[in-house]
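Instructor's aside before we start: the two examples that follow are unrelated to each other. I chose them only because their records fit on one page, so don't look for a connection. First example below.
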Amino acid sequence: MRHTPIHGRLAGALAVLLVVALIAGISLVFAGCGSSTPLATTRLGKVQGVVAGNGVDSFKGIPYASPPVGDLRFMPPQPAPPWNGTFMALKYGKAAPQPKDALTGVLPSQQSEDCLNLNIWTPAVDTAKRPVMVWIHGGGFTNGSGSDPIYDGANLSKRENVAVVTINYRLGPLGFLYLAGIGGSSYAQSGNLGLLDQVAAIKWVKDNISAFGGDPSNITVFGESAGSISVCSLLGMPSAKGLFKRAIAESGAANLMHSTQNAQTITTKFMQQAGVSDIAGLRALSTGQMVAAETAMSQLKTSYELLFGPVIDGAAIPQPPLQAVEAGSASDVDLLIGTNLDEMRLWTLAVPQLARFPLAVVSPYIPMVQLAISLTALATPEAVAASYSSRRPGASPGDVSLAVMTDVMFRVPAIRVAEKQSAKQKTWMYLFEWPSPTVKSLGACHAIELPFVFGNLHAARVSRLIGQNPPQALSDTMQDAWGAFARTGDPNGNGVPNWQPYNAQTRATMILNTTSKQENDPFAADTAVWNGVPFDGVKPSLQ
């Protein structure tokens, strides 16, 4: 048959169509969900997302509660209203109002009191019922957001075949200002609004995650620093009972709790700083005025503890969370908990004196450390420092101070939670020891494990701490352990070194480093210094 121009054009058009179809087919394979515009149907309405760069479906900025503004300021979260049409979940929602982070200098560009939103990454919008991992960000209950690039859930979702959720919650005085003393029973839970926001977010996930390919009966809450303190608080909160099956607590325990007396003192000082005398005055303050008063108050504070945070209020938190855990409040929750070897070294960036001065000089400025020392058999900073020094030949006085502070603020409080929970349900302990190659004085400091957990080793800003070539294998191990735990309650499998559950006898602990391995009772002699100190938020207490 003779090849005519028409036939040639037709053949060319068909070739183009074939190429387009082939490209589309490849795109569908890599998109995972089979669509560049994934759509999920929640109880509140339809939600449209996008396909992330690695092929998982991403939904951002979904409201999980009504905006806590106007009459809802200082009130527990209320259900989000349904929406008409399709909610376009294409970009992050606004972060909670907050001052600039004193350590990182980071300040989210988009902030609003209308901040109760969440983000979801899932391999596919289908009926697969994948494990769900709900992330609670840190930041001392005054900073942070679920939109931080380190917390992007795409890589963790892809590697572990899980649905990853990050949330925002109210921070600072908007989330933790205790007003029952001046407002009565209507404000009984006001000191824990940020935690109640977290509960509302988890409830929303439980009610809606099946629309995103997740399993509402297999939810793991995980968090770091203030997010980890939140996780430990949730273990003891009646309103959180039954909402999640597993919990991962990274570098935060149940020790940094405010009493109502302490919380009331903070409230009084905040109101003085803001120039108001009653709740009506507080309600009349603009968002900017609230943040300005918080900033001024934080600059007046001299100790390195929490200004705002969970309050043992007898309502949202009926009793100290550690005591609740001991009584069985979370007896059906698997727990993975741990800390980093050199937690307190991060704060030397803001307070260089911490790395230079002896414990006797530093501890008076950190009341919790001073109180904890007074509860030990050694009783004095000098005696505790001498004990730690005897096991650290060549360590400087500053090195010893930092080791003691790390144990008081992080490591031993985490051990207390593990001791109590392991008597009720399977518990796993880790110690992250990989040190910063770029700022060697920081060692394995607070928060250094975060990019490894999320598989975001090249996220914005992280190279300053972990360098240009961090060990991918360590990230793989941590993601696989966290993912296995979320699936089954056991972090073993898929190349993770043999890891035994924690108990008060063997104290099995996974040492996470370029070569990870289990050790029983690491730093046992240091831990023994604190025998008899509860670290339950009551002894020692925040002052």
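Example two begins here.
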Amino acid sequence: MNPQGFCTGELSSSALGVAVAVAALHFHDAKAHQSEIQKGLIWLQANVNSDGSFGDTPQSPGNVSTSLLAYAASNLYASSNESTTHLQTKIAAYLASQNIDVHSGQVAKVILNHYQRDYTFSVPILTMCGLCGVPGGEAFRYIPQLPFELALLPRKFYRLLNLSVVSYAIPALIAVGIVVFKRKPSSAVGRLIRKQSIKPALALLHRLMPGSGGFLEAIPLTAFVALSLIEAGYGDLQVVENGIQFLKRTQRADGSWPIDVNLSTWVTTLSVKALRGKTDEVLTPEMQTRLADHLKGLQNRKVHPFNGSAAGGWGWTSHSGSVPDGDDTPGAILALLRLRPKEEVKEAVLAGCGWLLKLQNSDGGFPTFSKGWGKLPFDQSCADLTGHNLLAFSVCLDAYGGELSPKAVRAYREASLRMLNYLRRHQRQDGSWLPLWFGNQHVADHTNPVYGTAKVLTYLNDVLLHGWFNSSFREQLNDLTEAGERFLINVQNADGSWGGGKAIPGTIEETALAASALMHKKHDKARQAAFQWLDQTYRWHGMKASPIGLYFASLWYDEKLYPLTSYLEALSRALELTSSLGMIDKCSPSVV
């Protein structure tokens, strides 16, 4: 908890963020930013994997995308710096081992094949490579043209268009689309339309930029925009200057950058959630009031300039680039109701629920940012967000059901039933659910059914404590939870831990989340084995964070507060269970 009274957390450093930020600073003014650039290159040299690759975090196995960007950034200085030349040679050897020739157009083919229809990252990656001279002067022949002119249409049409980027990537669509247009031949008609679209598109980009200078507070996105505009001939724009200052301000002392400034709202609400019934023992009334006031102060009060989102939602951080979303909003609602009497937070909570009602998709599930965007994975409904929202609506019905109008109660109930039906349809045959923004690097397809199932089960188990629904609703909840519990029991490792799936090495985060989901006496054996593993792991290794988070377009990260909040929530729930069973005196010392 910081001096302002809320949690900040700490995201892992990102080689991808470092590479793109170094390139942006180089193209802006290599001499003026020499210190920041050199520190970034030194960090890359110190954190390259033994095989010459880079992963998304220092703990991650290498991947082609991040390694290619690090190669491109080093290409800017390889001819003038011996250590950078050595780094580039190592990266080239890794890429060659992956059958990638950095001197041919094959680079584009590999990246485009990897990301398929989603150009959110593939086109910016290839654009930076081209601007850095990789694979050479013909690089832009192979880069798809992003239709930046479509961003000028009213927002309500975006979801109907083939933008090939996710809803939150409009700044990249514009800036990268403009530089590709400038560098790549196209038809006369296409060139005329796009040439006339540049000025209004740049004006739109200016309106989208937050006061901090960082689009979505994201280092890679802001850097991609800045370097693209600079190399398109628009380096004197205020958007570029603000973006460059954002990059300089967010560089860490060791020379690295994270992928985003922080996830302060998210980790703050996770921390409150983890305390559960111990809130009053841990947080003084003054601390609780300060936390609640902080969260209420972050609620979006007007139409958001970035994506036109209505008032009422919460984003993931306290910084100005944050955008309201479908996971932080239920998190804030639940935290407020935990921190303060329901009468004090009623206005904020019901405004948040009203915002969520408008976000719910026609399939009954919840997306992250925008309703109706279903063409690309990170715009679609997902199980973990839907479960989170079902709990938020259930808590609100329990707290305010007698005070709401019949119309409002009906809307909450109908929305909840649609969420339940979504979860029923998307529970897989083995009883699991998949999350959207979390994965596991060791699972073959990088999904994380343990995380998704544990989160949904925990939400549903809490919903079962409420009394607003009928017996049919309860029976369906019980059926879903029983199947989910069977899945978790079946994939627990022999040592008591859980990883992302069957026989995947355990982490504190996944083991603690699974333990939280299995708070029934019938799961005593599995839960006790989990706590023994957690206790031993904590004693030997401390609160070691694992790369389970997925940032925009599948970029891995870890967050230092994730293992702590997950473990603490599991302990809080275990203490509640043992107390309710009259067994607190029999609880093992490690669990207590």
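The first strand starts at residue 549 and ends at 551.
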